[in-house]
Design brief:
two-stranded antiparallel sheet; alpha/beta; globular; Rossmann fold; 11 strands; 215 residues; 7-stranded mixed sheet
Amino acid sequence: MHSFRKFLPYGRISRSNALCPNCLSLERHRLLWLFLNDKTDFFTANAKMLHVAPELCYIKRFESLPKLEYLTADLESPLAKIKMDIHNIPFPENSFDIVFCNHVLEHVRDDKKVMSEILRVLKPGGWAILQVPIFLPLIPTTFEDPTIINPQKRAELFGQDDHVRMYGKDYADRIRNAGFEVIEENFIDGLEPDLIKKYVLPQGEIIHRAIKPSQ
């Protein structure tokens, strides 16, 4: 158990009090951990999980869960066990109970194709966590333009030079259009202010839990 007076600064535009010096979690990682513990059976259920672009702060903790069959995958990351293009996931349909794909969709060429692949490999009733960057105030409609390749222009329009789209208020509908049922979890609003302060949780972060229909 570690305790710190303050977290470290982090980010291309530096955020103070963001990075845990022990586990290397950021605000969004700590929020999702609390959500999984409070609102799901993630830590106790028998499940098979695909973790795309795995975050270092989670890997050993997820690997230690005795009932979780845990696979990590990425096109480039050395942290992942499987090399994979998420546009063409190399597993049969109905393979996984859970898919994590956090802060990935803003980077991919075709997010609709990626969402359809995640839906395909999930088992009926299985679910995915599909988080993307939140830039407030949210624009009404997701903006993307594949002809914009200049890094400076991408950073200006999409929030970061390696992003290819800026998600808007229609994000949940984009997930629904791929065939998912979507629960938009405003989890942080139900937490005590002291807990939010302790873990430095991100205001305005909605957790998108995408569920593959059972039928």
